[in-house]
Amino acid sequence: MRRKRALFSFARFLGVLVKEFIQMKRDRVTFGMMIGIPVMQLLLFGYAIDTDPHNLPTLIEVADESPVVRSLTAAMDTSDYFDFIGIVTSEAEGVEALKDGMASVILTVPPAFERDMIRGLVPEILLTVDASDPVAASGAIGAMSGVVETAMAQSLTGALSGSASTDAPFDLIVHRAFNAEQETSTNIVPGLLAIILSMTMILITAVAIVRESEKGTMESLIATPVLASEVMLGKILPYVFVGYVQTFVFLLAARALFDVPFSGSFLAFFAGFNLYIVVNLAIGFLVSTLARTQMQAMQLSFFTILPTVLLSGFMFPFAAMPGWAQALGTAIPATHFLRLVRKVMLKGAGLPEVAGNMGAIAVILLIVVVVALRRYRQTLD
Amino acid sequence: MTRELAISVTGLTKIFGDRKVVDGFDMEVAKGTIYGFLGPNGSGKTTTIRMMCGLLTPDGGEGQCLGLDIIRDSREIKKRVGYMTQKFSLYEDLTIAENLDFVARMFGMKNRKAIVAEAVRDLGLEGRAGQLAGTLSGGWKQRLALAACMIHNPDLLLLDEPTAGVDPKARRDFWDEIRRLAAKGVTVLVSTHYMDEAVQCDHIAYIAYGKKLIDGAANAIPGQIGLSTFVVTGPELTALEDRLEAEGAAGQVIRFGAELHVSGTDRAALVALAERERARGSHEWTEKRAGLEEAFIYLMAGAKDNFGAEVAG
C-alpha cells in the first residue's frame, strides 16, 4: 500500500505522555505496587535468600572421646555454621536423621582417632552433608576447613606438638560435595535490581498498552492522526520515570538495610541503567503487541520473567550452566545488566569496563524495537 | 444528482480469513446528508465504517472520501473524520475535560483550552468537567463520545451504533444533535438496529452477510421492493399466524404487538387471501403501506446466508 509519510508530531507525543501520567496517578494500586515491589523484594530476597547459611543442624557420631575430638567439635560449634543438636550411635541413625531433615550435617569420628593421629597414621573423619540444597551444603563444607585449622591450633600443643609440624594430621572426607559459586547477600542485592526492574517494567508497560485495546480506546486512538512512534514514546516515557523512582528506592534500601557498597563509577551505572530500562520497556511493548487482553499480557510477562530469573546468572552461577542455557541467557538483557551492576557496585568498575555489557544490551534493544514496531498495527487488520 | 459527494466507493471488499465480511460494496453519499446502515449483527456494518476511516485496509475496491483516496490518503482522511465507536472508547479514568483535551491534542488543535471549555459548555456539563468519564451514565457517555469526535470539526462523522443501550429520551436528543450537525453541512454515516432511527436518515443502505441488499431514500424502500401489506387484528392471533404459515399462501407473516402484518410482493394474491379470510368474519383485514420493518424482514428472509451464524462484526 502506498501511504504518505507523516512527520512525528511533538504535540501529539506530549498529549499521549500527559494522558499516561494522569492515568498512572489515578491507578493508585499499580502505583503503590511499583514503589512497593522493590522494597518488598529486597527484604524477601535480601534476608530470606542467604546462600551462606549458618546454624546447620548437626549430629555427631563419635567413637573416640579424646581431647582432640572435643576441641574439634567445640570449634565447629563456635563457628556458628554448625549447630550441634545431638549424638548418634550408629551410621543408620545418622542417615535416617539426614533423610527426614532433622539434621543437615553429620560428623563421624572413627574409634581411636587421636591415637592413630599421634602414630602418624592420618586417620579419616567423615563429614556427611545433605546436598539436596547444594548452596547450603557448599557453605558448610567451605566453613569446615577453617574450623579444622582452628581446632588443631588449639589442641596440638604439649604432648601432641610434634604432630603439628606435619601438614595434615588427619583427613577430612566430605561426602556429597557440591561446588557452587559463593553467593553472599552483597552479591544477591545488585542482581536483584536487574530482576525487579525487568519484572515491573515489562509487566506494567505491556498491561498499560494492552489496556487500550482491551477497553476499546485503541480504536479511537488510531482513528486519530497519531503515529505509532508517538504512541510508543508517549506511553513508554512515563515508565522510564517509574524505573528511576524504583531504582532510587532500591539503592537507598540496599544501602540502609544491607550495607551494600557502591564502589564504582556512578556514570557507568547510570548509563547502563538507562539502557536497561529502555530495553525492558521495549520488551513490554513487544509483549503488548502479542497479547489481546491484559490477562494475556500478564501471563506473557511472567513468561519472560522466569528465564530472566533462572538463566541470567541471578539464581544460578552462569558458568555452571550448560552451553545451550548460556546461549539463551546471553539473549536476556538482565544477564548483561546483572554483570554490569555487580562490576560497578562491587568491583568498582567504570565506563570502559562495562562497555561490552552495554553493547550487548544495545544489540538486544535494537532487535526488540524493530520487531515491536513491525508488529504494532496502525490499523485494526 | 449533482450534489457534491462526500463518499464514493466501489467494490469495497474485506476478507477475514476465508470469509468475505464485506463483499463488493458500492456507496455514494452526498455531502451534508445522513446515511444510515441497517443490517443484522455481523452483517459487515462496522467493518465498512472502519474501512472508511482508515482503521482497516480494504482488500479490494477503491474510492474517495472527502475528495481523498481511501487507500493512499488514509492519514489525511483521519484528520477530517470523526469516528464514534460502538463501545464507549474514551478513557474512563480520565475526567470529561481531560478526555476532550486529549482528543484535541491528538488532532493538533490550537487553542485547546477554549475549545475544550466550549465543548464542555455545549454538553451542559460545566459543573462536572472534573468528573471521571467512567462514572457517567450511558446517555452521557454517548454524548461525551460524540462531543469528543466532533472536537476537531470533522467534515464526516462515522457513528457505529451510537445509540445502543441508551434510553429513548437520550436517543431522541442524540438524533436532534445529529440533524443539527447535518444541517451545518457535516456528512453523517450511521449504523443502527432501530427502525425509528432508520427513518430519520436521508438515505438507507441495508446490508446483510457483507452484501448491500438495497439502498435508497428511507420512504422509497418498501416501494422499491414492491411490497404490499395487510394489517390483521382480532382474537387469537397466534393461532391465525400458525395457520397462515402452515397454508403458505401468505408471503410473510409478522406479529407486531396486537397486529399481524401479512406482506408479499404479489398484491393480487394477498388481496384474494384477505377476501377469503374476511369471509370467515373472525378478523379484520386492512391494507396499508408497507413499512421499513416489513421491507427489511422480507429482504433478510431472501438473503443468502453465506457464512453461517458466527460472523465477525
TrEMBL record, chain A:
Residues 150-379 form the ABC transmembrane type-2 domain. It comes from the Bacteria. InterPro entries: ABC-2_transporter_component, ABC2_TM, ABC2_TM_bact-type. It is found in: Cell membrane. Its main location: membrane. GO terms for cellular component: plasma membrane. The chain crosses the membrane at residues 29-49, 188-210, 236-258, 264-288, 300-320, 354-373. It is a multi-pass membrane protein. It holds the Pfam family ABC2_membrane_3. GO terms for molecular function: ABC-type transporter activity. The keyword Ligase does not apply. Keywords: Cell membrane, Membrane, Transmembrane, Transmembrane helix, Transport. Belongs to the ABC-2 integral membrane protein family. This is ABC-2 type transport system permease protein. It comes from Celeribacter persicus.
Automatic annotation (TrEMBL), chain B:
Keywords: ATP-binding, Nucleotide-binding. Pfam families: ABC_tran. Residues 7-234 form the ABC transporter domain. GO terms for molecular function: ATP binding; ATP hydrolysis activity. The keyword Nucleotide-binding applies. The keyword Nucleotide-binding applies. SMART domains: AAA. PANTHER family: ABC TRANSPORTER G FAMILY MEMBER 20 ISOFORM X1 (PTHR43038:SF3), ATP-BINDING CASSETTE, SUB-FAMILY H, MEMBER 1 (PTHR43038). This is ABC-2 type transport system ATP-binding protein. It comes from Celeribacter persicus.
